[in-house]
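Work Package 4 report. The design task specified in the project plan requires that, given a folded chain encoded as structure tokens, an amino acid be chosen for each position. We show below one input record used in the internal validation round.
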């Protein structure tokens, strides 16, 4: 069974002569235990597709399934619960809570859900992301790259069924980028999670199982087994 499906998604902005088509009848299936990178030029619809898949935005037509749940049928409360229980987000707008420490931010989704924190996994994730000695710091005391890695740790620590990322390596140096990509790879290989990220980072192709290319709101290529050299 697929982890997520986009069916004939069309998203328009504006109306009449000024209508912008961000997505045109996009269909894609994201299998469980698969790591997909979505690439393409700026303005090709990558963020819009990601936001529709993650239930953060609604398409003008078409539908999105997470597992066998049709998002268009969900009321706000059910959507919030689905996002909280089943989806991890690594987005550019990190939404870290400024008054909480890195550690508290990382475990916040689990604390809100009343779920236990797997201490061993927490230690593994924070260690691999180089956060071990930053856990007591608040976001304002962290570098941009550290803030981004905290957001990544927060998305991973509860082992959600599906992880969505929007430029998860966007502001990171190459060492941190490699750590983030390899930990996402590990989420798939070790825990069977599903990962879908939007990225401009050619290195992501070497970690992903599949690269979906968008142009002008359409899927123009969908390939498996690419490496970074195929993108550069
Ligand atoms: P990408 O993530 O590939 O850069 P986006 O999904 O952000 O592309 O945008 C796709 C298209 O939709 C672009 O032409 C963009 O200008 C347009 N667009 C995105 N968001 C809005 C918005 N809120 N209002 C109007 N147009 C938008
Ligand atoms: P972009 O990638 O185009 O810059 P953002 O990442 O800033 O877009 O986020 C776009 C929308 O998604 C915003 O409305 C933001 O509030 C929402 N969003 C981002 N991250 C999360 C999150 N972790 N949980 C809920 N909503 C989020």
């Amino acid at each position: 069974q697929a982890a997520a499906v986009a069916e004939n998604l069309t998203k328009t902005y504006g109306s009449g002569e000024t209508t912008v088509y961000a997505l045109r009848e996009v269909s894609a299936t994201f299998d469980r235990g698969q790591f997909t990178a979505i690439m393409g030029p700026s303005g090709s619809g990558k963020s819009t597709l990601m936001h529709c898949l993650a239930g953060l935005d609604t398409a003008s037509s078409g539908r999105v399934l997470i597992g066998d749940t049709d998002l268009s049928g969900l009321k706000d409360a059910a959507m919030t619960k689905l996002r909280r229980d089943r989806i991890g987000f690594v987005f550019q707008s990190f939404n870290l809570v400024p008054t909480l420490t890195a550690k508290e931010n990382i475990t916040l989704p689990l604390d809100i859900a009343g779920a236990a924190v797997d201490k061993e996994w927490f230690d593994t994730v924070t260690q691999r992301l180089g956060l071990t000695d930053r856990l007591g710091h608040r976001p304002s005391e962290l570098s941009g790259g550290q803030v981004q890695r905290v957001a990544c740790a927060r998305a991973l620590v509860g082992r959600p069924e599906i992880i969505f990322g929007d430029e998860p390596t966007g502001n990171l140096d190459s060492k941190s980028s490699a750590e983030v990509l390899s930990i996402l790879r590990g989420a798939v290989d070790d825990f069977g999670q599903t990962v879908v990220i939007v990225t401009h980072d050619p290195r992501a192709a070497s970690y992903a199982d599949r690269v979906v290319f968008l142009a002008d709101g359409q899927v123009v290529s969908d390939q498996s087994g690419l490496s970074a050299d195929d993108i550069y």
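The radius of gyration is 17 Å. Validation will be extended to a larger panel in the next phase.
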